Amino acid sequence: MDFNVIMYIFFGIVSIAGGVILVGAKHPIRGAMGLLTTMLALAAMYAQLHAHTIAVFQVIIYAGAVMVLIVYFIMLLDIKSEDYAKPFSKFFWFGAPLLLFAVFYFIFKLSMVIKSDGAFFATLNPSLVSPNAPEAFGGIKIFSKELLTKYLFAFEFVSTLLFAAIVAVIAIVQLDWKGKSNE
Amino acid sequence: MNNPFTDFIIGSGGIYTIAVVLLLFTLGGMTVLFRRTLLHMLMGVELMLNAVNLSFIYFSRLHQNHDGQILSLMIFVVAACEVAVGIAIIVHLFKRTGTISVETYTAERG
Q: Which residues sit opposite B35 in a β-bridge?
């Protein structure tokens, strides 16, 4: 078996393990570490799928900024341990197996359909899927060229969303200040 | 046909990737539905967004098309906004009630 294939499968299993840790961990800091494992494993999978730019952004934005923010606030809130005495809702032991069964059944059915339908993914032209250099697909140069020409409106619009988020956060913080002054 | 990894991606790697995406999405959904702390629910939403990103990037690789990658970049921004606002709300609620257990807030349902 090819080394790249083995690493792809390995990182997929690692990402699922991180998700299981997130669901099962009692303390949020352990869940955050599981989520961090998932994000780093997914970054490796992105890099293998020729999305080099997105892999770098995944490490910088998600594993760097977002997770640091979450871990920082877990530390800052310093939550009492009685919040973790019963971490799961009472529907967990009924609902979780049901959801997992539904998903595995769906995957099984999907694999049956793909097998009986004569390899759904193989109908793609193999020359289209040929391995490319980063300069031709997924590299920062060609990626940003596409982002700043074809998707310029989406790019600018998403910056508006960031601005709206800043305004929302300031509004919530101001709510806190006003609540204090009323007391 | 020349590269074994490309063959894997077109062939059985497809169902493997979709299985990983579905399982990650379900684990994130389980975290949102069945955990009782607000921070865990926020992290579950992050996991769901990450799972969707993987499927976008897989299909973008399959079609040699940048659309999926750019869409996943937009999802990054949305997730960052969501974490900022979500954590501000959690801190506000924690200062008001002193706990982040969701059962404290059942009185606030509509």
A: A88
B52 in Cβ contact with B75 (< 8 Å): yes
Residue A6 tokens read as 């083995």
A89 closest CA partner among B30, B27, B15: B30
Contact predicate A136/B52, CB 8 Å: no
Tell me which DSSP letter residue A104 carries: H
Exposed / middle / buried, residue A22 (Cβ in 10 Å: 0-12, 13-18, 19+) = buried
Q: pLDDT truncated to tens, each residue of chain A (183 aa)?
A: 788 899 999 999 999 999 999 998 888 889 999 999 999 999 999 999 888 999 999 999 999 999 999 999 888 887 766 667 777 888 888 889 999 999 999 999 888 887 765 555 656 665 656 656 667 788 888 889 989 999 999 999 999 999 999 999 999 888 767 665 544
Contact B71, A155 (CB under 8 A): no
Q: Provide the pLDDT confidence category of residue B13 given band limits of 50, 70 and 90.
A: confident
**Which A residues 28-67 touch B at CB under 8 Å?**
28, 31-32, 35, 38-39, 42, 45-46, 48-51, 53-54, 57-58, 61-62, 65-66
Q: Which of A73, A126, A142 sits opposite B1 (nearest CB)?
A: A126
Q: How far apart are CA B22 and CA A5, in angstroms?
A: 20
Q: What are phi and psi of B89, to 5 degrees?
A: -65, -40
Report in angstroms the alpha-carbon separations of B54 from A74, A85, A146, B89: 27, 34, 20, 28
C-alpha gyration radius of chain A: 22
Residues of A in contact with B5 (CB under 8 A): 2, 4-5, 8, 48, 131
